[in-house]
Design goal:
isomerase; Triger factor/SurA peptide-binding fold; 462 residues; PPIase_PpiC_CS; four-stranded antiparallel β-sheet; 3 domains; alpha+beta; Chitinase A, domain 3; globular
Length: 462
């Protein structure tokens, strides 16, 4: 496996390639092409079974690594290493197809929605994002869908191969002892930041208006109008609305509980009452059941923007903050039990570093809103409730906790155990993946552009 960073603030290059296109820096990371008017010469530079590697794939990753290096020298064989990692990812896809490893549509849709909401927020609005790419959001999602499905499939394959790998404290110490003293990295100021988020509630009058509109549509359908035509005209689910509300087949527990429960109470052709979920209000029609799977169509309406009320969320967080400051509950437990952000909540409220998965965040990588909030905070301080807009565009309130503020220093076992543990785990997982690659690289057909014939694709010993 290819890993050229000594003690890692970054994971293996394979992981970097896997995550290309996820949220890191810049709108080029959308992975959905360039705005109209720019053209790039592309071509196939490798084939692994029926999977292909494009020249643009390699160039995009190379550009990212150059940007991350920030002027520091890069390995002279960087392009070959990227090429090797891209080929390894394609082998994961080829074997996933052979082993019938699939990613459900619901997971792909969720990831697409997350990315679009994030980038719309970063650029200012969905409209601005559409103007930047000269395409509607729906088309941007469709352009990105194959790439997202590939990335999620690769991640699922990696998880099957190395997901159960763990490291012991002894292994972490052994890992640290192998690092030459003159190669220990120097860490700049890093902080650990926790948050507890509560979503603003939609006010009752807005809810009632939305429910009334859906009940009106329900009456029109029962009177004989076409569900599909009304979904095309009124549904606010951009993915299914244009398809007449059709969502396709799902297994149990793949859709939100409220939706699934209402759908499974219906007979084929039946129409549900109005159903509320975290996404809004639904009118659901069951189409068909096949064993443990079922297909539905729906009309989704959301309360009008600007109709949320954050007062209740602010009061709840203010009470929670007082309990934490009085030591009647820890921040970690309060976050786990109360935060509407399940990702950080499950981590005791701590925000994870997207590059290495640790809780240590370099100051220069912080979200500006967090940076300016903690800039004058003392360690242990918790802010009063503050307005917040989530990555997916929800109005919310949050409190922020500065858990630690580590001064610049050279890596040591005591202060940097968490980072060292993650690095040791990454190394061990890479070794597990290496073994898998060695066992499987001979089972695929490989064809390489002569320009890269010296890169020893799928040679896990390099």
């Amino acid at each position: 496996m290819i890993q050229f960073f000594s003690l890692p603030k970054r994971a293996a290059l394979l992981t970097a390639v896997l995550l290309a296109g996820t949220i890191t820096s810049g709108f080029a990371q959308l992975g959905i092409g360039r705005p109209a008017g720019r053209q790039v010469v592309d071509g196939i530079i490798a084939k692994i079974d029926n999977q292909i590697v494009l020249r643009s794939d390699l160039e995009a990753i190379y550009a990212q690594e150059v940007a991350r290096a920030d002027g520091k020298p890069l390995p002279p064989d960087l392009q070959c290493r990227i090429m090797q990692s891209l080929a390894l990812n394609k082998l994961l896809l080829a074997k996933a197809e052979t082993d019938s490893v699939v990613v459900e549509d619901a997971q792909v849709k969720s990831e697409l929605d997350r990315r679009m909401n994030y980038f719309a927020q970063q650029i200012g609005s969905e409209k601005k994002l559409e103007e930047y790419y000269n395409k509607p959001i729906k088309q941007l999602k469709e352009d990105l869908r194959p790439q997202v499905r590939e990335q999620l499939t690769q991640q699922k394959m990696q998880e099957q191969i190395a997901g159960k790998v763990t490291v012991t404290p002894r292994e972490v110490r052994q890992y640290f002892s192998r690092i030459p003293k003159d190669s220990l990295p120097y860490y700049s100021t890093e902080v650990e930041v926790g948050q507890i988020i509560k979503y603003a509630k939609v006010n009752s009058s807005a809810k009632q208006a939305t429910q009334a509109k859906l009940n009106e549509l329900r009456a029109r359908i029962l009177a004989g109008e076409s569900f599909e035509e009304l979904a095309k005209k009124y549904s606010e689910d951009p993915g299914s609305g244009a398809q007449g509300g059709y969502l396709g087949f799902f297994k149990r527990k793949e859709l939100v509980p409220e939706y699934e429960a209402a759908a499974l109470r219906l007979e084929p052709g039946g129409l549900s009452p109005v159903v509320e979920s975290q996404f809004g209000f639904h009118l659901i029609q069951l189409i068909e059941r096949k064993g443990e799977q079922y297909s539905t169509r729906h009309i989704l309406l959301k309360p009008a923007t600007g109709t949320t009320d954050a007062n209740e969320a602010s009061l709840d967080l203010a009470k929670l903050r007082r309990r934490i400051l009085a030591d009647s509950i820890t921040f970690a437990k309060a976050a786990k039990d109360n935060s509407d952000d399940k990702t950080s909540g499950a981590n005791g409220g701590l925000i994870s570093n997207r590059e290495d998965g640790s809780s240590y965040l370099p100051l220069d990588k912080l979200d500006p809103a967090i940076f300016f909030t903690i800039d004058t905070m003392k360690v242990g301080h918790i802010t009063p409730p503050m307005p917040y807009r989530t990555d997916d565009g929800k109005d919310a309130v949050r409190i922020i906790w500065l858990k630690s503020n580590t001064a610049p220093h050279q890596a040591n076992f005591k202060d940097d155990y968490q980072k060292l543990s993650q690095a040791a785990l990454t190394e061990k997982k890479n070794k597990a993946l290496d073994g898998w690659f060695r066992e499987n690289r001979g089972s695929v057909y490989i064809e390489v552009d002569p320009q890269y014939s010296g890169c020893n694709l799928l040679d896990a010993t390099n």
